[in-house]
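Task: encode each sequence below as C-alpha cells.

Item 1
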Amino acid sequence: MLVAAALVSSPSYPEDQSVKKGETPKPPVEFVTGTATHQQALAWTASVLCNSNDQAEVRLDLAPHYPVLFAPDRCGSHNTTYFVFGVSHRGYKYLGMLEDVGAYRVAAPDRNGHPRIVTYYGFGADDAVLSLEVLGPDGFKEVKRKNLNESHAEGLPAGFLDSPKPATAQELQAVFGK
C-alpha cells in the first residue's frame, strides 16, 4: 500500500517594521488584488504587527454585504491595532488599518455608501478619544473626533459603544455634532 502525504506549511512573510516606525505598511500583491487566503491574512498581520497567528480575529459586516475580517494586534497595551480585510469569494483584500482601538462600533454607511466605524481609544484614567472613521479607496480616514474625559462617557448616549446594531446617522450627530 502506497500512502502519499503532502506537507502543508503555513504561509510566512518577512518581518516588517513599518508600523512600529509609524509608517504605512505596503501590502503584498495578493492583498492588493484581493486573492489572499485566510492563512495569508493572518500570517502577514503577524509579520507586520507584534502578533501571533493564534490571536482571535473579528468578523463583521462593516456595511450591508461588506464582510470584513479584523486581524488584531495586541502589543502589550490595552488598545489594539487592527488590519482590516475585505472578504469575498476570491479571497481577502487589505482595506486598511485601525490603530489604537480600545472599543469600536460599526456605523451606518455615509451618504456615498462608504462604510464607517466609530473607534474609542483610552489613554489614561481621565482621557479618551472617540473617532468616526470612513473607509475610502486609501483606507480609513478619521472624519470626526471627540475628546472625552472624566468618566469617558460624558456626552455619549447610554450604551453607545455596547450596542450590536450599527450607529445611526442620528446617533452619530448626537455624539459628534454636525
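Item 2
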Amino acid sequence: MIFRYEIKGNASAFTFGVWCCMNGGSWIVSGVEIRHDTIGSLFPKRSLPGLFDSKALALARGIRWCESVAHQLLDAEVPDVPAEMVRPIRHFLRPAL
C-alpha cells in the first residue's frame, strides 16, 4: 500500500508531495514531487534511496529532501542572459476584419 502526503507551508509558494510504501519489512520513499503555485511541477516525480524502520522516518526523509531542494531554488542566483541568446518572441498579427 502506498501512502501519499501533501505538505504546504504557511507562507511558501511550494507544495511537497511525498509517497511512502512498505517494501520487504522496511519503508521507502517511493516518490517526491515539488510544485510551485504559479509554475506547477518543478521536477518529475522520483524515488529517493534508502530504507527506513518506520513510515514516519521515510516521510521525514522525503520532506527534508523537498525542503532542501526548494531552499536551493530560492537561494540560487540567476545569471543574466545576454539579449542575443534569448529567442525573440513571435508576435502574430491578425488581419483586420
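Check on item 2: The helical segments are 55-75. The CA atoms of residues 62 and 88 lie 39 Å apart.
End of task.
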